[in-house]
Amino acid sequence: MSKIAFGLCAVFLFAATAGAAQEQVCSNPATLRLAIIPQMKDQTAVGRYDALIETLQDELDRNVVLVPAGSYGAVIEGLFDGSIDLAELGPGSYALARDRGANITAFASLHKQIDASGPSNYHSVLITRKDAGIQSLDVLRGSALSLVDPVSTSGGIVPRVAVRRMTGMHLETWFGRVSFAGSHDLAIDAVLNGRVAAAFVADTRVKEGVYNGRPAADALHIIWRSDPIPADPFVYQVGLCEPVRQAIHRVFFERQDDLQPLFAWRDRQGFVPVSDSDYQLLMAEKGVD
């Protein structure tokens, strides 16, 4: 074989090998790792995701584990460092993660109407005890406030923007003491137990919360409500191999009958498709303070 022919063969072989290697760059984890942002004070509630985990295992033919997450930030970091493949994020934490370069995309969200287009909405609300008689943000100046988490949408990001716009001051300057409860339910408890005068939380948790055997909403007063916020997205790593992503889509959109325990617990009808475009406004506003 001539040197030229040999050289051409070497070039074609290298190109073919490089192309095959590129096709194998995608992630095909032996165990799929799922994480959920903390929302409730009793994190044993994560057991309610068993139906989703079991259906994913069946469709993917591999183990699926729920990764414990003590904070919103822990879920975001897991998506950054590749230790989490699939997660439910708050819309604000999704916008923050994308802005910082996480290679993830939103694809599904729980909804009360299965034939809906795009995510449902909820609101950030500022709550106080009903018997405190507080009617406005002005009265709370210098008071103790509970937030949920620095990257919670309704319990962190949106309140900072809102307080700055309503008062012209940073949230920590307007309130006397600001603490992070770690979940929406714990922030509500802090108000009801008198540890803080007010809290910013998701209105869905106010509606669904229970205090001393009664609806928490009966003992709370809402003095401010945000504009609608798109509901929490489920996201996955863009780098997952196409067959893995297709299997995840089948679970979320074609096997919803198997997920009824999850839907009943979350008071939703099922999953609807979402995309980055549904969260563009939050992506644009997240840095306002």
Automatic annotation (TrEMBL):
It holds the Pfam family Phosphonate-bd. NCBIfam families: 3A0109s03R. The lineage of its organism: Bacteria, Pseudomonadati, Pseudomonadota, Betaproteobacteria, Burkholderiales. Residues 1-20 form the signal peptide. Belongs to the phosphate/phosphite/phosphonate binding protein family. GO terms for cellular component: ATP-binding cassette (ABC) transporter complex. Keywords: Signal. GO terms for biological process: transmembrane transport. This is Phosphonate ABC transporter substrate-binding protein. It comes from Pollutimonas subterranea.
